Amino acid sequence: MKQYxxxxxxxxxxxxxxxSISVSLLATCFKFKNDLKTVQAxxxxxxxxxxxxxxxxxxxxxxxNTVSCAISDYGVNVDLAGNVSGYxxxxxxxxxxxEPADIxxxxxxxxxxxxAGGVFSGxxxxxxxxxxxDGWISLNCVNSGVCATSDYKVFLNGINFEGWAxxxxxxxxxxxxxxxxxxxxxxxxxKVYFRNNxxxxxxxxxxxxxxxxxxxxxxxxxxxxxxxxxxxxQKDYRVEIYDDLALTIPTVxxxxxxxxxxxxxxxxxxxxxxxxxxxxxxxxxxxxxxxxSNILAPLYFGGLKGISHQYPTVEFSxxxxxxxxxxxxxxxxxxxxxxxxVYDGLPIAAYEWDFDYDVTDPLEPSLDASTxxxxxxxxxxxxxxxxxxxxxxxxxxxxxxxxxxQSLGVGGVDLPKWNEVKP
Length: 423
Hints:
It contains two helices and 27 strands. The chain is mainly beta and about 425 residues long. The chain folds into three domains: about 15-195, no CATH class; about 200-300, Immunoglobulins (Immunoglobulin-like, Sandwich); about 315-410, Immunoglobulins (Immunoglobulin-like), CATH 2.60.40. Strand 19 and strand 20 form a beta hairpin. The N and C termini lie far apart (about 110 Å).
């Protein structure tokens, strides 16, 4: 911990007045230069908030703090590589630079300020230095090798900066968060922190399985796209499903709650969606710094609206199940050992068999046999040695149909091939 004695930070009006007077005296002693540099850091600075110096008062890290960007668009920025650049502003000593061009010839260590592993290193410098004052502000005790006696540094806690910097006799201790105070944040809730831009999501549509694969509890997938200008990843999502456009009350089981996941695909749990119904839903997400996105709503899912009931379940077995030879009769049973089914109290209208189904051209009609519900078992004799694809299609009385395709191998010896030739 720091061993230097320092004034406890009391953020009252009387303290600010005293600070102003003391800075005036410092200006007399050190004769600050008057040729202030014109600075502009652009619109992309991502650090915002105030730090507090026991000697010079408030230090602003972004023009948004004082609604002065139209006059001077300043700020401090940390890029994705951790390089720090830009300018902070003090009413009492002027510009404080983090720019590489200004951080040359620092007292010790690596000059360029950077953020690595959540800890600041390097230096900043007041541009109005002179008259015996060098303007250097150390962001980490490692710079000067004094950590054994004064273990100070500026570090990141979530999106908030905490800890202390040291600016010598003129600037003194610089606190980056009121949490440094004892008791913390009682007189002023100041801090320096990363601007956490909210993530943005857009609708990516919705999908569901083939109607023959939906089963008794149909499911769907709701998809969105995610972007974040800060580079933060998605941390949580919340999806709410409604059966009315007014989004009054989520359906039973239709509110995921705030769920820890970086997935941009939400699979609706079984039992939430019903055949014949239409739904509206909304989506929101949070990034790794807990910034909440825009809300996508109302989004529409009508994939089940035109489907009144579950599609048929198609099963069949064949006998013999193996060792089939050419010219051997094979029987096919759609009720044993697993029963094919239709739903909603409807009867089966037709069993349609294709014993040499072309999987590459499923639209090609090739009906080999049709059995009625009263006697659904079919039989067939295979004439060639090869693997056949056998297809059963079941249709209910509402016209809903599904298929089941199984491979069947036929063995044996092929007849000799012959060609007719003229004598």
